[in-house]
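User: Hi! Is it possible to get a structure for several chains at once, not just one? Here's what I have:
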Amino acid sequence: MKRSWVFWLPVAASIAMFATFFVALVRPADRTIVSQLVGQPLPAFDAPAAMPDQAGTSSRDYADGKPRLLNVFASWCGPCVAEIPVLLQLQAMGVEINGVAIHDKPEDLARFFAENGNPYARVGLDQGGRAQIAFGSAGVPETFIIDGKGRVVDQHIGVITEADIPDILAKLKGS
Amino acid sequence: MRRFLIAATLCLAQPVLGQDYAEESLPDVNQEAQAVALMDTLRCVVCQGQPISGSNADLARDMRRLVRERIAAGESPETVRAWLVSRYGQWVSLKPEVNELTAPLWLIPIIAMGGAALLYSRRFKRKKK
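Assistant: Yes, the chains can be modeled jointly so their relative placement is included. Here is the combined structure:
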């Protein structure tokens, strides 16, 4: 008896299914949580001043025509230390960087800046993670590129290295 | 005198400054039940495998506080979920949602059962002959 093509249909379907499983197993999904705010206006937030001699930052600071970086960091975060020299380089190139410190204390931040330098124009304390959640940020460090109209152009998850500088400068210029 | 001072200081000591809804229940029982049900179906974005109700991560605490505060302010649980999804994407929600991407999960079993029923009915018909 010649088997009709219908007989092979379930066999083909299961082969396709297991092939899909295998591919997904070999190449697992990207688990990075990307903020949904890229392309959208920066949400309302208010991070009051962390340092006595430096202003805090709120969403009202970002629609003045000047593109800038918004860096989410913390004094207790090891990778954030590694990023500071690169942020200082960007600052020397004329890039304005505002910092929002997550779960931090003014005295810890003062020590952090004394040890590593302070690349920020403004430093705000995030209270109870409110700003972080509003940004859709899942960790530290993360950096948002904000255009002159106060919109989020891009999100950089993790440490900024020297290799990222050209890309960041291009995105700041293009916005 | 020293004992009195210690006792007085201990009397003044407060366990927490005000209410921190990250760990404390809402006074309204119904609202608390809604908040807990929602927290059980929101994924912790730091520890990823856990809901925020069962996670010790700082960000999960912050999210629990946000959930309770918004529910206490009268927002519906689904509004709060939608707000978080608008920040972190669909991934933050542990509640399965039917959309064009997940529809096959519901449709494939139905199609497979239908196909199997069709094949079997044909086979039985042939045997009867």
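The domain at 46-174 of chain A is CATH 3.40.30.10 (Glutaredoxin). DSSP finds five helices and seven strands in chain A.

User: Great, thank you!
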